[in-house]
Design a protein that fits this description.
alpha/beta, TIM Barrel, Immunoglobulin-like, 2 domains, seven-stranded parallel sheet, four-stranded antiparallel sheet, 17 helices, about 30% helix, elongated, binds alpha-D-glucopyranose
Amino acid sequence: MSKRGITRRNYLTKLGAGAAAAAALTGSGCKNSEETKPAASAEKIADTPPPDHERRIQWWRQAKFGMFIHWGLYSLLGRHEWAMELEGIPVAEYEQLAKQFKPKPNAARDWAKLAKRAGMKYMVMTSKHHEGFCHFDSKLTNYCSPQQGPGRDLAKEYLEAARAEGLRCGFYYSLMDWHHPDGARCATDEQARRRFVDYIHGQIRELCTNYGKLDILWYDVAWPLDAKGWESQKMNDMVLQLQPDIIVNNRNLLAGDFGTPEQEIVAEKVGRDWEACMTMNESWGYHKADDDWKTPKTIVRNLVSCARDGGNYLLNIGPKPDGSIPEESVKILSAVGAWMDKNGSTIYEAERCKVRESAFADFTRKGNTLYIHVYFWPGETVSIGGLQTKVKSAKLLANGKPVDFKQEEFRVQFTGLPAAAPDTPVTVIAVECEAEPSQDMENIRKNRPRRQVGV
Ligand code: GLC
């Protein structure tokens, strides 16, 4: 996957955003000690999920696959959602876009239909990105869809569309704000901080009060304050009081209900819920010229990797200014959906899987069943080394045909398979084992009998 896009990590690092902000980037996953140090002024902050986590997170653990939607004024520019900052566009100039933003009615219905077709179970739309423009009806600013070009509440349209398809749904909300006058000076001016935090908490209260039951609140970029400055504990308490079933992420610098690795699949420690969020090309917002699209195979492989390690996959679309979805994204997600129709059970019901080594396959597991996801089809025989568990039976998931196998101490071979891959982009062999499958590659290296020198 590309490492070239803008990530919050490199942005915050450049800005010297403070340890707490950077530490929250990958939850517990940070390696750099500078990033993991608590902010000097931070009070003891919650490092465990909010109360009642197990109950609230149940549906999400089974959902596995969600749609992220980045849509805002930046979509009109079509040069990445960071254009305002990266091109140094003056606020007064950028604001003009708000009047020009006139999306077609109910564009979100196509997003929700596509999400469903792709096998996604939930949606998360940007209610306000760093640019500061809000898609929801806010009493706290007129820089919002109902009072600007769209003349209507786009957040509401989106939720209605998602719910009509039976999908769970919630909001992304950026704490960092390039438009609000106090958005930067709040770091050094207490009165500005007070006003700004009241504004942010007030908007979160609006989101959690005016839109019915929300399933997710997805905070983003906490620059330039720390958890104490944001009053993050109070923020989460308010959210959970207004929405007792909601789950929140970790980007307001508290642990939240789940970690958020970005543009990479890095599992959190066992017991911690996590969700890898990724783009389909290199941008979150619509970027006309960005043609670096992932293939459906890459997307399926990513989904498999997340499911193997107990995580979810939140995959992004960046709609055009009128709300339509880039054609490439539709093609990719349709192909992924066709695969999910046949193979979805290997994902939704997956539990953490200990088998992981192969040069042509990845793995998921449900109970004692191992799913071998072959992405480079080797031909008539598929061999897996180091399997420690006795195989009872195997079949091709695509057509239910039984597969012969031969198991020895160091290798199991599945034989008599077709020369060409029976499914695309990934073929699944379902393998019933006697116990939870595990793999030991060390055993091969150390104990596989060796020839004597000279023989
Ligand atoms: C980064 C980017 C942002 C995007 C987000 C999604 O923080 O700043 O544009 O919304 O990642 O995770």
